[in-house]
Write a structure and sequence with these properties.
Low-confidence stretches: 190-198, 204-219
CATH class of the largest domain: Mainly Beta
Mean pLDDT: 75
Strand order of the largest sheet: 1-2-3-4
Structural class: alpha+beta
CATH superfamily of the largest domain: Pleckstrin-homology domain (PH domain)/Phosphotyrosine-binding domain (PTB)
Largest sheet: 4 strands, antiparallel
Distance between the termini: 24 Å
Strand content: 25-35%
Number of domains: 3
Helix content: 40-55%
Shape: elongated
């Protein structure tokens, strides 16, 4: 699998695809500019007119080249980092190095608490923030860093959790399912099952799961 591709089953609907907010690129450039100015001030006090010397000009060139390389590398990692919310999973695709990325997948049911962190004034101006998802049984946290409108992502995730809970609470029940072999099977009722493979219906006998229509399978 290439660094630009990530496969999600066609029947698993993508509800949100988020990237790191573009304002973070400006912050990196601003930090590099401030670092350069501070270094120039320190050198000026310790050695006046340092930029007129041979080694001073070489130092400036090395600093500019290093700053540009660092900025490009940082942009590459942030640009390729992607966060995805589907009806079943939370997916964190973090570009850690130039040719290395880490993919973390968590089922929606593992999310226990959802917190938004946007304390700084820059976060409020650009309407961005961190979406922090605490997992059940102290399994850790999943963080979507600096995404645009994290409130929308939280609302989507809470909606999925609410819908999932309504179904999972009935996990002791079974229902009839028609699979691809055109035979009827009794399976536990679960959100992830009919959410991915079939559609749920209700008739006079109660809950059933029916095979998807031909048009839906081909789409």
């Amino acid at each position: 699998m290439g660094i630009f591709t990530f496969s999600i089953p066609q029947e698993e609907k993508k509800l949100l695809i988020a990237k790191i907010h573009w304002s973070n690129y400006l912050i990196i450039c601003l930090k590099l500019l401030i670092a350069g100015l501070l270094l120039a001030v320190i050198l000026t006090f310790s050695q006046p007119f340092w930029w007129e010397g041979h080694w001073g000009r070489i130092g400036v060139m090395f600093f500019i080249a290093g700053a540009v390389i660092y900025a490009i590398f940082d942009f590459w990692k942030r640009f390729l980092t992607t966060y995805i919310i589907t009806q079943c999973r939370l997916i964190d695709i973090t570009q850690e190095k130039i040719f290395r990325r880490i993919i973390t997948e968590v089922v929606v049911e593992e999310a226990e608490e959802i917190i938004i962190k946007n304390d700084s004034w820059l976060d409020k101006i650009f309407k961005k923030g961190d979406l922090i998802i605490k997992l059940k049984d102290k399994k850790g946290v999943l963080v979507f860093y600096s995404i645009k409108n994290p409130e929308i992502a939280k609302k989507i995730l809470e909606g999925i959790k609410e819908e999932t809970t309504k179904i999972v609470d009935k996990k002791g029940e079974e229902c009839s399912v028609i699979l691809k072999d055109n035979k009827t099977h009794n399976v536990p009722l679960s959100y992830s099952y009919y959410g991915e493979k079939a559609e749920i219906k209700k008739d006079k006998d109660g809950l059933i799961i029916a095979k998807k229509k031909k048009k839906e399978e081909d789409s």
